[in-house]
Design brief:
Layout (H helix, E strand, L loop, with lengths): L1 H22 L25 E5 L4 E2 L9 E2 L9 E12 L8 E6 L10 E5 L13 E2 L8 E9 L11 E6 L7
């Protein structure tokens, strides 16, 4: 009788393994499923990351809405021109996480100490490059950074700068 019991158990185990092999284990390799999605896009002056200009030299509105317009006509040759408080970057997100902010440019014209530099107003440090990222929670006005613009025409012609990118993220890009 013990032998029959063993044969029955062996047979049931073999059947279970065989059916698993024949019909699969329930795992899958891919799924494609369409779902409805909804997104809302806001202009720079009302988005999670608000960009606003001083109104005199920098404006963040216009067409297209993703344009920050820098208007600096008649800059002196071989001179440094600084505009205080020209650009403000604000965190309007609903979370309380710190935001680290910095800017990069489309070419080497925008650089720390270069032809065009954006300088954090509260500590006079450049915000160009992720190595100069600023924690918005440490600002005089928490969640808001005001930047001065410095243009040094002795370093080159600023008209080559056509794009800047504003970066913001929850983690310090320099954390190891």
């Amino acid at each position: 009788m013990d032998m029959n019991r063993r044969k029955v158990l062996l047979g049931m185990g073999t059947a279970a393994i065989g059916s698993g092999a024949a019909f699969g284990s329930g795992a899958f390799t891919s799924v494609t499923a369409d779902r409805t999605a909804s997104f809302t896009v806001s202009a720079d002056d009302s988005a999670y990351l608000t960009l606003s200009g001083d109104g005199d030299y920098v404006s963040a509105s216009g067409n297209p809405s993703n344009t920050i317009k820098f208007t600096f006509d008649n800059l002196n040759e071989n001179a440094t021109t600084k505009v205080d408080g020209a650009l403000t970057i604000s965190d309007n997100g609903s979370d309380s996480a710190s935001k680290y902010v910095w800017v990069t440019g489309g070419d080497s014209t925008l650089s720390s100490g270069g032809t065009v530099d954006l300088i954090e107003q509260s500590n006079s440090g450049s915000i160009v490059s992720d190595t100069n990222a600023v924690d918005l929670s440490t600002q005089d006005t928490v969640g808001e950074l005001t930047a001065d613009i410095e243009i040094d025409t002795s370093n080159g012609d600023p008209s080559g700068l056509t794009t800047i990118t504003v970066h913001a993220q929850d983690s310090d890009p320099n954390a190891q």
